[in-house]
Specification:
The protein is an alpha+beta fold. Helix content is 21%, strand content 30%. It is built from two helices and eight strands. Strand 4 and strand 5 form a beta hairpin.
């Protein structure tokens, strides 16, 4: 088995991959320095194909219940801190949607885990509104590369 680059897929226990995604998500939370409401969902294991041992882990979460200005500042702080914390920013800018929210995408240099963060505020510029927005939030997706579970370990059990 190999990934899209032809390299062999690394073997890793799904619980180890989930724990690493949790840690990276926690690091990202520390980088934005915001104390809003954090969504409660944890990382999920997703099997690549039914009956195979290949899987990846995704942790989708968000921070909300803050002013658009606070969220915007936290988002820009994240962009500044990512390179200092071992992440390579691969894309930054407005997504191709009618809302034109800002997005940053990055890859962790050490282990190829990925991050996508989207700023959902009424105005994604530096002059975002100071009042709390009901829809305002930063949405994060932290994901692992594809792994192969050890023999006898079903990724769906984790």
């Amino acid at each position: 088995m190999s990934d899209s680059d032809g390299a062999a897929t690394k073997e890793k226990h799904p619980e180890q991959a989930k724990e690493h995604v949790r840690k990276l998500s926690s690091d990202v939370f520390d980088m934005v320095q915001l104390q809003g409401k954090v969504s409660p969902a944890g990382p999920a294991t997703m099997r690549s194909r039914e009956g195979e041992r290949e899987y990846s882990v995704l942790h989708a979460w968000s921070i909300s219940h803050l002013s658009d200005r606070e969220l915007t500042r936290g988002f820009y702080r994240l962009r500044e801190e990512l390179p200092k914390e071992g992440w390579r920013i691969t894309d930054f800018g407005h997504v191709n949607s009618t809302d034109r929210q800002l997005e940053v995408e990055a890859v962790h240099k050490k282990d190829e885990y990925s991050l996508s963060a989207e700023l959902w505020v009424s105005n994604s510029g530096e002059n975002a509104h100071a009042s709390a927005s009901k829809k305002g939030r930063i949405v994060f997706y932290v994901g692992s590369p594809t792994y192969r579970s050890p023999k006898g370990v079903d990724p769906d059990d984790y």
